[in-house]
DNA sequence: GCAGCGACGTTCGAATTCGAAGCAGTAGGC
DNA sequence: GCCTACTGCTTCGAATTCGAACGTCGCTGC
């Protein structure tokens, strides 16, 4: 390709982009406070517990967790260490693959999750959903889902060079 | 109030909420890489420069910047220090209020912003807007704007206690 | 089998982040 | 004019975050 067409965003796009970032920043900030007060959890920790609690088996591999919450591997190691020290999860080598580590939520983890969840939901309800009608929420979900799939599918920018580095 | 009505989110709401968080996490991650490569800027730094560049005067007060990008004051002090050391902004005491500090973008700051912006826009276009039609984008903006206003208007959860801390 | 390549998780060091405490400067009541 | 409360920013210490380097394990071709 010669060069990209004048890469600019029209005002509507810019507004949507900025508002998206702003809304999530604000929401995340508020939620973080609530989680800290209610259960001394950081947002990442909550996300991890929530994902584990949602899983049928109550467990996930480290890498899948990191990917799921968009976190660095080393960061996840650190957080998993904290959660384990707090007795909220357990780490064990995978049975089938000796390399990978399986993280499993404990009963204490589920209990804490259950304790924190109502307040969390209340905050999200009050801030994010309060100004939105049920139809709005459906529309929002319908708009964002394809975006998520698209970004997930997109090669992570650095992969391009990696894939064809061997010419 | 006796107690809140069963605070639960229906599956659609949950999906919308999770997708919202996921999309912005992914987007932010991708953008962060691009900014790092293109101009050695963190996302916060870019946001700050962008806000300053957008301002008619090219400047803002520290507090307003921190509020705008949803950042802690101390964090902003740190970042402003970095940007100033890099010659991208200048800090000066406000003329009218001796307490506050006015941050102003320099020509070098504008130049860097201009240099980084096309790539930034390209990433956002390719990831966020690629799966969305112009109508979708309008809808998204229309959905999120009220949410932003609502959250901005909401009392910051901790303000209640601060206001009445003196008994 | 075994050499080489790739995936998984951890360790390490450096940079960033936040809240609490502190230091001015400002506004209002008297 | 002062005293008190409040705002604006910075400093400080502790916690978190990431990428790079590392050790280990699994998979392929031979």
TrEMBL record, chains A, B:
A Pfam family reported for this protein in Swiss-Prot or TrEMBL: MarR_2
Domain HTH marR-type: 13-149
One GO term of the biological process aspect: response to stress
Domain of life from the UniProt record: Bacteria
InterPro entries: HTH_MarR-typ (IPR000835), MarR/SlyA-like (IPR039422), WH-like_DNA-bd_sf (IPR036388), WH_DNA-bd_sf (IPR036390)
One of the record's GO molecular function terms: DNA-binding transcription factor activity
Protein name, entry field: MarR family transcriptional regulator
């Amino acid at each position: 390709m010669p060069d990209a067409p004048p890469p600019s965003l029209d005002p509507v796009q810019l507004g949507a982009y900025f508002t998206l970032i702003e809304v999530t920043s604000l929401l995340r900030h508020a939620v973080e406070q609530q989680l800290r007060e209610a259960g001394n959890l950081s947002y990442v920790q909550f996300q991890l517990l929530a994902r584990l609690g949602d899983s049928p088996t109550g467990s996930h591999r480290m890498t899948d967790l990191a990917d799921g919450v968009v976190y660095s591997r080393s960061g996840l190691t650190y957080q998993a260490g904290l959660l384990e020290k707090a007795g909220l999860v357990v780490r064990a080598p995978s049975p089938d693959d000796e390399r990978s580590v399986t993280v499993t939520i404990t009963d204490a983890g589920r209990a804490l999750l259950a304790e924190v969840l109502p307040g969390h939901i209340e905050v999200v309800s009050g801030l994010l959903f309060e100004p939105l009608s049920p139809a709005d929420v459906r529309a929002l979900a319908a708009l964002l889902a394809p975006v998520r799939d698209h970004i997930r599918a997109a090669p992570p920018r650095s992969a391009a060079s990696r894939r064809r580095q061997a010419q």
